[in-house]
Amino acid sequence: MSSGTTPEPSAEPVAPLRVTVGGSAGTAPYEVLIGRQLLGELPSLIGTAQRVAVLHPEALAETGQALREDLAAQGYQAITVEVPNAEDAKQAEVAAYCWSALGQTGFTRSDVVVGVGGGATTDLAGFVAATWLRGVRWIAVPTTVLGMVDAAVGGKTGINTAEGKNLVGAFHPPAGVLCDLAALDSLPVNDYVSGLAEVIKAGFIADPEILRLVESDPEAARTPAGPHTAELIERSIRVKAEVVSEDLRESGRREILNYGHTLAHAIEKNERYRWRHGAAVSVGMVFAAELGRIAGRLDEATAARHREVLASVGLPVTYRGDQWPRLLETMRVDKKTRGDLLRFIVLDGLARPTVLEGPDPAALLAAHAEIAD
Ligand SMILES: NC(=O)c1ccc[n+]([C@@H]2O[C@H](COP(=O)([O-])OP(=O)(O)OC[C@H]3O[C@@H](n4cnc5c(N)ncnc54)[C@H](O)[C@@H]3O)[C@@H](O)[C@H]2O)c1
Ligand SMILES: O=C(O)C(=O)C[C@@H](O)[C@H](O)[C@H](O)COP(=O)(O)O
Ligand SMILES: [Zn+2]
């Protein structure tokens, strides 16, 4: 990924695409920029801040350092805060380490956090920004597919606890999101594909054109060089932006973005976060589709389409059959649960998400049988 100071020799400057998020119900609007070599946009987002903390994972140490040097050259007092890769970053101890770094730098309310990395890093960076001095501004620079299309947009920030995924957090939207597509070139294929689960989720809940683009060449969809990469990312961001703009705090419609996540979060916890989020969401969506079908909501063809399109890009569609009691136990503390009432997002048809409350235990078991290996 470019640090923003060394333009590629023959690259014509291309204006980034801009998607506006928020702006209703008293929330400040911000922009998601999609393009290449976007880091030149950072100073205008940082504005008059004196100090900037660049949070990055170990894997992006060079990028973090290059960014810090750019910002320092522009007169900011910039520090890097290196955090563990992936889910190991989303822990209270790591948040506490970040708070110390801000404290030791004399971070004030006018200073800015920049989170550069995948969804785990931006979830942590946003959470640190939400909690430091009860809230400072932050900017997301997602470097994974999943980060760009989902995690960096919408202001859900947080960390895990021993009891489960994302159980501590805050709604704290960023001041801006910079999606530099060049970052995806260094992403391991497994992580690239994991992000496609959230892309495909956006297809099933809101934009079926996404499904058609993936289905037209699943092999090409697995790489950043695929012909539809930019369109898939843009369409998914538009779905997310539209939903969170209407319901930032998940008091209703935003729950549809949780499609497949009730089971997914239980799988992630059960696997001690060694499964990628997107892989778990893939299995979770097949489960939700089967649950919808068994509950008489979803037609067989659309349920089967889940399995087909997810498997076609190499995502898992089954999970260990012997773990059901543990998964069920964890699902009881899902954020959508109300009291003892389990609630799932299912489809009434393609792009028609809805809530299924208190499903029949037999239906849950039958849906589980469809994903058990
Ligand atoms: N806040 C939200 O709305 C939201 C939405 C979806 C997912 N999430 C969260 O996002 C997380 C998953 O994010 P993810 O899939 O991006 O994975 P991740 O952040 O765990 O990153 C995966 C790995 O890729 C490395 N990496 C990141 N960018 C790279 C690059 N450009 N080149 C090489 N390596 C790179 C990371 O260091 C890590 O090791 C989960 O914690 C999930 O809960 C949050
Ligand atoms: O933005 C949302 O809302 C989502 O549910 C998007 C999900 O893809 C994402 O994984 C989110 O972090 C899940 O949130 P949680 O509230 O179920 O922890
Ligand atoms: Zn997700």
Automatic annotation (TrEMBL):
Subcellular location(s) per record: Cytoplasm
Domain 3-dehydroquinate synthase C-terminal: start-end pairs: 195-337
Enzyme class: lyase
One term under GO cellular component: cytoplasm
InterPro entries linked to this entry: Dehydroquinate_synthase, DHQ_synth_AroB, DHQ_synth_fam, DHQS/DOIS_N, DHQS_C
EC number of this enzyme: 4.2.3.4
Keyword Membrane among record annotations: no
Catalytic reactions on record: 7-phospho-2-dehydro-3-deoxy-D-arabino-heptonate = 3-dehydroquinate + phosphate
3-dehydroquinate synthase N-terminal domain span: 81-192
UniProt: Zn(2+) binding residues: E198, H261, H277
Gene3D superfamilies: 3.40.50.1970, Dehydroquinate synthase-like - alpha domain
Key words, A-Z: Amino-acid biosynthesis, Aromatic amino acid biosynthesis, Cobalt, Cytoplasm, Lyase, Metal-binding, NAD, Nucleotide-binding, Zinc
Pfam family, one: DHQ_synthase
GO molecular function, one term: nucleotide binding
GO biological process: amino acid biosynthetic process; aromatic amino acid family biosynthetic process; chorismate biosynthetic process
Function, in words: Catalyzes the conversion of 3-deoxy-D-arabino-heptulosonate 7-phosphate (DAHP) to dehydroquinate (DHQ).
Listed PANTHER family: 3-DEHYDROQUINATE SYNTHASE, 3-DEHYDROQUINATE SYNTHASE, CHLOROPLASTIC
Family the entry assigns: Belongs to the sugar phosphate cyclases superfamily. Dehydroquinate synthase family.
Matching NCBIfam families: aroB (TIGR01357)
Protein name: 3-dehydroquinate synthase
Designated gene of the protein: aroB
